[in-house]
Amino acid sequence: RVFQAASLAFLFVPINTVAYIGVPREQNNQVSGLMNLARNIGGSVGISFFVTALARRSQVYQNQLVDQLTTSNPVLQERLGVLQQLFAAAGPGDALRRAYATVYMTLQQQAAVLAYKRIIEDLAVVTAILVPLILLFLKKNRPGAAPAGAH
After folding, report:
1. Which residues, 6 or more positions from 19, have their beta carbon under 8 angstroms from its beta carbon?
2. What is the pTM of this model?
3. Where is 82: in which H helix or E strand?
4. Is the Cβ–Cβ distance between 151 and 32 less than 8 Å?
């Protein structure tokens, strides 16, 4: 959390500085309003993208993991046996049902972890590509031009 919070200063300060380059002081309010609008819309779109990608990736990984869980899989049979013994107090039929439920819950958790990992990797690649592109197209502040406004 400390690294995340500390890194925000390295994100928002340059964005705000770049936004005000070449803007006359009398238009600072308009720039501020547009920046806030862009931040709100970008946050909403980013969150919805992340949630949708997480749900889809979790389904993909869950399908891949379920393919490994066959009745002939000795690891699954061993795990079910251990869990059945753990839940034996609930009765033999209920113990098996609870064992399968526990295995399925573990499978869902592992699918979610794999989905988070993949999405973070994808976002890291996108960031690594976009940051240099932004620096290439960044408008330079020329001495003597309109000063950058303060926010």
Report:
1. 31, 34, 35
2. 0.73
3. helix 74-86
4. yes
